[in-house]
């Protein structure tokens, strides 16, 4: 299966819709740099872009998508709804969540071709508690029923969070995934339920200690590829949907140069052996200490 992967490969949701197997991450890409990066990525073959209300760049991402000239129905646009910050007393109702989600659609979809919509909206974090999560989920479910968000999902949710959600079943769980932070229990649970796993931080934020790990360096040299290629190919072959971020055209191009080699069984075994659990994370989200 893995040897047949291409930049056009998709994964099917349990809802029947499909999502590209490689996305373009936009966290931190703002102003004209962000617009140009998104436009370049879309023009050169990326079919999915991922952003979030928290990134403060939905306008720029929308402008980049419009500048790319790619027809709206040829792209997959994903964003994340931002729950109230930790410690906040705010408890948005499902209707408020839906209305805030609608603002993201206006910022992102500049297509002018068809009815505005987003392909996927995700709850960015399981804050604050079970009741709050249920309300947030009901708000996105309302938007989905109204038709202007096609699929809905979650991010940074563990098994307990997923089990407690009201219907419908999330299409996606976006979590930190790379060889040093594999979150195997959540991955196994999601796989058993047909929930697609999006991998954020698939390039471990280019951390020097990770990029110079002898195991990864050896495998990269074996395939005459870069460490980033190995990490992204590992993610693809695990069945994840990595969403690497880049701003320069050279890096954007390099991050999709993944389809002329394949990691063999020994490569995958050695990379799997790097797992440090939650301790191996590089993001500020600690999967071992999330809200109850």
TrEMBL record:
InterPro entries per record: AKR, Aldo/ket_reductase_CS, NAD(P)_OxRdtase_dom_sf, NADP_OxRdtase_dom
Domain NADP-dependent oxidoreductase span(s) in chain numbering: 26-275
Active site: 55
GO MF annotations, alphabetized: oxidoreductase activity
UniProt superkingdom: Eukaryota
SUPFAM superfamilies in the record: NAD(P)-linked oxidoreductase
Biased composition (Basic and acidic residues): 96-105
Disordered: region residues: 84-105
Record: residues binding substrate: 124
UniProt site (Lowers pKa of active site Tyr): 80
Protein name: Oxidoreductase
Organism: Kwoniella bestiolae CBS 10118
Lineage of the organism: Eukaryota, Fungi, Dikarya, Basidiomycota, Agaricomycotina
């Amino acid at each position: 299966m893995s040897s047949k992967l291409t930049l056009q490969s998709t994964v099917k949701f349990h809802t029947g819709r499909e999502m590209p197997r490689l996305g373009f991450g936009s966290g931190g890409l703002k102003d004209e740099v962000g617009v140009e990066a998104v436009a370049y990525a879309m023009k050169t073959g990326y079919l999915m872009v991922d952003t979030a209300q928290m990134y403060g760049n939905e306008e720029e991402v929308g402008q980049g998508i419009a500048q790319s000239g790619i027809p709206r129905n040829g792209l997959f646009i994903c964003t994340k709804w931002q729950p109230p910050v930790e410690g906040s007393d705010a408890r948005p109702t499902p209707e408020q969540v839906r209305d805030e989600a609608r603002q993201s659609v206006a910022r992102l979809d500049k297509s002018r071709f068809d009815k505005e919509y987003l392909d996927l909206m995700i709850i960015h974090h399981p804050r604050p508690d079970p009741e709050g999560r249920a309300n947030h989920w009901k708000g996105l479910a309302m938007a989905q029923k109204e038709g202007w968000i096609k699929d809905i999902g979650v991010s940074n949710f563990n098994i307990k969070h997923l089990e407690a959600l009201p219907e419908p079943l999330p299409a996606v769980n976006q979590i930190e995934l790379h060889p040093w932070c594999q979150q195997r229990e959540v991955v196994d649970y999601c796989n058993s339920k047909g929930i697609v796993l999006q991998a954020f931080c698939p390039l471990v934020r280019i951390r020097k200690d990770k990029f110079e790990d002898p195991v990864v360096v050896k495998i990269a040299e074996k395939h005459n590829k870069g460490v980033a290629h190995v990490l992204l190919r590992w993610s693809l072959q695990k069945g994840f949907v990595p969403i690497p971020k880049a701003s320069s055209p050279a890096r954007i191009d390099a991050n999709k140069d993944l389809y002329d080699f394949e990691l063999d069984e020994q490569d995958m075994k050695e990379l799997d052996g790097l797992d440090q659990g939650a301790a191996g994370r590089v993001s500020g989200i600690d999967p071992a200490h999330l809200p109850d």
